[in-house]
## 1
Amino acid sequence: MSAPAIYAVFGASGCGRSLMPIAREQLTRLSIQSQIYFIDDALNELTMINGHPALNYSAFQALEVQQKYVLIAIANSQVREKLAAKIQQDGMQLWTVQANLNVVMDQVEIAAGAALSPFVTIGSNVRIGCCFHANLYSYVEHDCVIGDFVTFAPGVKCNGNVHIADHVYIGAGAMIKQGTTEQPLCIGQGAVIGMGAVVTKNVPAGVTVVGNPARILNTNNR
């Protein structure tokens, strides 16, 4: 008889290996006894990584179980999006993993596939899209709206009434100034916020901003 469910962390590099203990802790907290695999398409055969079996996607897909849950631990948001579509198309479910030391306040909506590392705080009345990554000590304050495949590096400070579009990357230690209900601070799709940047006004789609206050990086000066 096949097992009712198995779980996997897709990606066995630094991101995946950092999230595996959180995933393991979550199953323990929920009293779920199940195997957790690493998925890594560079592997040709079953191996062990940090005490967990690791195999490629095709081999994981072939395992005979009723349900499969996958956390995508890939930093590149475009790759996350492609993998999320494939995983769901293949009949598996995106897995949301939250550390025991998170704080999630009232009326928070988090779509499937999120990875919330230790000491992450999500304020009240926040909406977050698919496959959000929030690294150590990051926070999202009240009344924020975050799109799909957004990444917070460690220590990101996102204050209230901020709207972040899909595929935004926010570097370690960056700070986003609070907006208002009538005029939220907006960060456009695919924008990159540099490490330690202090964002005080709207950021257009597709640009990189750096510095304090954050300004658009002029790539012609490289």
## 2
Amino acid sequence: MAIAVSATRQALADAYKNIGGSNTAFVSVHTADPGTTGTNEASGGTPVYERKQTTWTSGTGGVVTGAQVTIDLPAGTYTYVGLWKTATGGETDFIDKVAISSTTLGAQGQLLITPTFTQS
């Protein structure tokens, strides 16, 4: 059931952005479905792959958007993006995931990611 009241949708979206604390989260990239613990995370490369911090801002009607991040990746195929509470924490710090269009890099490259959450 969709939530009919816009203010309620926004309150729930704002709660989502606070899961990582301080309106921030760390964005990751994955080579396959990370499941519920954040497996299959990218690694390696030069510059080396690492999670990047985003800061959430509130929208209206149930939307929050994170600041765009640029993630360095080695050659490979990437199919998911994840959100974490910390830059280096393990499975208990994993917040969420989303499938993306399969992206194949033939050499070292970058993905630009703008996280968005919409509560319906």
## 3
Amino acid sequence: MAITALMVKELREMTGAGMMDCKKALTSTEGDMEKAVEFLREKGLAAAAKKAGRIAAEGVVATYVSEDKKTAVVLELNCETDFVGLNEAFIEFANTAAAYVANSTIATVEELLEAKMSGEETVKETLTALIAKLGEHMNIRRFERFTVDNGVIADYVHGGGRIGVLVELSCDKNDELLSSLGKDIAMQVAAVNPLFLDETSVDSEVLDKEREIYRVQALNEGKPEKIVDKMVEGRIKKYLKEICLVDQVFVKNSDFTIKTLLEAKSKEIGSEIKINKYIRFEKGEGIEKKEENFAEEVQKQLK
């Protein structure tokens, strides 16, 4: 029996499953709509699709670093509750996906979902099965891959996957000290959350906005116009030390800034060490969580 676009549309509206999944279900059941619905339910696809409208702001941030420390990935997998976020199968999926991305050329979440991580099942199908098993909407929100030739990549995961950080260091010498330093800087990024690597990477619009705020503050404080500009630039310098990683005070030893720490370790190792880049993922950042009154929720369930 020929499967028409109208049949696929009808099944999709009934179940909320994806177009390709609906077409596959209808093909497998020779166009029988009721059997196709059962097919999707058995595969967990219909149930998973119905959960897709829920807000998934919990979950885990997972990292993977290759044995030679030249390739690394940080990946965020979201779910609805922290209970599922602590589930072993959920965490294992996140770790497996991060490792898979590191060992592939995949560049987007969409590509990852269509890839076959193991056997004939796509990542999307594996995730759908996990959704059906654990009963919550889930999604791979984002990932970032780092690769380096001369140097190492270090990772740090804080709070059981609440925050994940990668730091890429360049250096001509591949010493164990380099990995230890990378870990310390990754911890710094997790703790202090710098907005930029250094002053050269700060967006000029950000600085212009801060200058205007400081100018208004100074004038409101009744400072003379002739010294306002000097005050503003002084506050800008202080602000840059707070938001730029290399200018921040090292949290593990306040005698150093990250810049002076790099200089000291470069002398120790006998080769210049630079921070190429870093990335920091915090679970659920930027996702608007739905707040519900517990009493109201109970009433909804009773109705």
